[in-house]
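ok trying again, last paste got cut off:
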Amino acid sequence: MRGVFLLPAFLSCGLWAQPAAPVARWWEQEPLRLLDLVTSLGDIAFRPPAELAVRKSRQFYNSEHLDIMGMRRGLDDQGFFFSSKVAGRSNRDYLREYLPEARRRGIRVMIYFNVHWYTTDFGEKHPEWRQIREDGSPLTGVYETGTDFCVNGPWREWCFQVLRDLCAYPIDGIFYDGPIFRADTCYCRHCQDKFRKAYGRPLPSKKERTGAGFKDLMEFQANSLADFLRDSNRIIKSANPEIAFYMNGGVRGANWATARFNRVLVPEQDLLGSEGGFISGDLTRVSLWKPGLTARLLETQAPGKPRVIFSAASHKPWTFSVLPEAELRLLYAGSIANAASVWFGITPFEFDQPEMKTLVDMNRFLAANGRYYLGTRSEARVAVVWSETTASFYAGADAQMIDIDRVPSRSEVGNLEGEFGGLSEALIRAHAPFDVIDDVTLEREPLARYQAIFLPNVACMSQTAAGRLRDYVRGGGNLFATFETSLYDETGVRRKDFALAELFGVSAEGKIAGPNRWDFMKPVAAGGLLSGLKREMIPATFYHVRVKPQGGRALLQYTQPLAGRYDGIPGLSDDPALVTHSFGQGSVAYFSGDFGNLIAGFHVPELLQVAENALRILAPPPVRIENAPGSLEVVLRSQQQGKRLLLHLVNSTGEMTRPIRRVMPLYNLRITLDQAGDAAKLFTLVRPRPLAWQKDKAGNLQFVLPRVDEYEVVVFER
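nice, full thing came through this time. structure:
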């Protein structure tokens, strides 16, 4: 099936009259508190079933991913601890013993089924099942020890039989870890035949990541995964419609290697989940707000379906480790504050550790207050765009990928992860509630609810998206865009000029300047977006597009390049850095450099101030907080058509290092809610107490919040 890549047909359903809401399924009735003990890497039956179920229940988990297949060095047919027609060895039927114990204690059991990592020996027994690299060799080295199979080959029938065998038990769900393709797969004969039949030509190369050929390849692989999920779900639902089904979905990153494009795959699933809480390596370089940013994107990609953020209790790459309590609490809080359920992967080594008390406390809190987390909607007036298209097609996209699929960036210019992360961090530090939207939103979904849209190097953009943004600004919307936004089409082919040149008030001169290692920008205007900037010289962005004003007004200008850091005081160049322009009833601010990337790397105060000014001018936040550091994340949501407001505050104020071992409490925060009306009730959830409130001269509601530890929720009922 062609022509549906990233624009599945279900998106058009909003144009039709909606039927009455169906009865909520079990996975829609309360926020999920999911546990996975990752026993697949060790002993499946490491505790008696009743004892294990009791321990999980006492830790307030209401659901789980149950590992019931041994998976040392990958999955095969030898480690099934349930009855299956394709089992290569008969083991203890632990599943049959465990299910009634879990059910007795109110725990919903979803089976963890790894469909992307198999032992090399098992692969050698089934060569026709394996994914094949572009050079014709079978895939090896998956998690260093294994291989993987292809959804378009005969392995799918083996997988479907395992599904039928599992669904013969009274389980509550199936979770697929995978399926995925790889950065250099799949070129098996089954994929080649299927692609040739659909497209009339051979499979294109994954090495050429631009143009229509690569777009067709991405479309083909994403639709292949969707076909596999659809067939899986039919088998599951035919056995029992009350069995939930979902997979380990696409990340907020570069999904081109795996083809896990959530917009294509979510119609075939009951929930949408992603590894937004897996943190690894040097944590000082990892966003404090990663879970929340991922949860916001999932909400855009799966409207109306439950979302789950998968968090690992360990500090990767050390699987058998555990993060400090403060980090665990922040992972949890960042997920639920942004309307996602939580899943924690905890090895049996950590199940009894003292750090688990933190998760027990959070589980207990969510169990007691679940009604405040169901059926909520965002009240953000601002949106930041995460461009899946740019992450896939843009030559400079150094976007996050899962470890096993990391490939070298094709260019150091235009780090998409840095640009998005830096700009998002600037907005969070300015205490602005915001949504994360994507390319499909720009092309197909309503934009008018947002006062401003931020475009962090959305380099690859279709004419359709550009046209809708033009209409949005003409009608009174505002934009803040950076670097090469709209300079490439949706397949990564560079244009002669920005598709949004008319909005930016500049034209591209066709060249990228940089790297600017020790160079500067200089204000050439005052006030407005530059309010509060007092320095004459501001560190320059690493790179910038050479542009020429075409009706836009320059506020910042790059200086002449210096031959060395002590090469005198530079004069102005002809290159604008920050340009403002009016279009129709709206306003546009365009930054020609990689604005967010410089914030991500160096947290330049002047650029943080520019972002804060942009918010204040283009879309004043509905919440204002005095006495709060920039490390406080603010999320504003509502229930009951706005009758109840929910102000979530996630406090990441640590001791200037990560992992964070201790969060500094915040005291006596003075909070203003603009135009909120009168409060019938105003109270907190984490430290339960009623709050007194008053009105300021403008009629806005004001109150003082005595204390915030890692997390607090203020409930405002009209």
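cool. The chain has a mean pLDDT of 93. The chain has three domains: 9-270, 382-618, 623-717.
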